[in-house]
Amino acid sequence: MTERIVVVGAALLDAGRLLAARRSAPPELAGRWELPGGKVEEGEAPEAALMRELREELGVEAETVERVPGEWPLRPPYVLQVWTARLCPGSAAPEPLQDHDALRWLTPTEIWDVDWLDQDVPAVRKTLPKLTTGAH
């Protein structure tokens, strides 16, 4: 059996909004939107990988909240797992530092205004109820 490599994605929530990041690379993904994140390094916990990736890609300090149920196949051997996350108090605002050229905070009514990567759609769908709960 081939080894699976976990890719973590962050459903970064703030004030009832979800952060979407537009890919700038690789060319076949450029211009489409995703939940920011990246590969889990060997020996690294998925939650730790997610916090590291958010620091590297967006320049933010964030904490994971809970795992979004399910996982989604990417190009073998990769699988996507998603956690909801929130910015830590005092964190800088997210900036597109690497792999992305734009960021958008989306409200529930705007969530489908962007062209999500196919593999992120089910995770975004599962995250949507979290935007409406507790949002004022």
For the sheet with most strands, the description reads:
7 strands, mixed
Tally of discrete structural domains: 1
CATH superfamily, please? Nucleoside Triphosphate Pyrophosphohydrolase
Class from secondary-structure proportions: alpha+beta
Q: Approximately what portion of the residues adopt beta-strand conformation? A: 35-45%
CATH class: Alpha Beta
- Element pattern in H and E: EEEEHEEEH
Low-confidence stretches: none
Enzyme class: hydrolase
Catalytic activity: 8-oxo-dGTP + H2O = 8-oxo-dGMP + diphosphate + H(+)
Pfam families: NUDIX
InterPro entries: MutT-like, Nudix_hydrolase, NUDIX_hydrolase-like_dom_sf, NUDIX_hydrolase_CS, NUDIX_hydrolase_dom
Structural notes for this entry:
With 136 residues, the chain is an alpha+beta fold. The protein has one domain (5-132): Alpha-Beta Complex (Nucleoside Triphosphate Pyrophosphohydrolase), CATH 3.90.79.10. It is built from 2 helices and 7 strands, in the order ββββαβββα. The protein has helices at residues 46-58, 121-132, and strands at 5-14, 17-23, 33-34, 37-39, 62-73, 78-87, 100-106. Strands 1, 2, 3, 4, 5, 6 and 7 form a 7-stranded mixed β-sheet that branches. β5 and β6 form a beta hairpin. The model has no long low-confidence stretch (mean pLDDT 93). It catalyses: 8-oxo-dGTP + H2O = 8-oxo-dGMP + diphosphate + H(+). This is 8-oxo-dGTP diphosphatase.
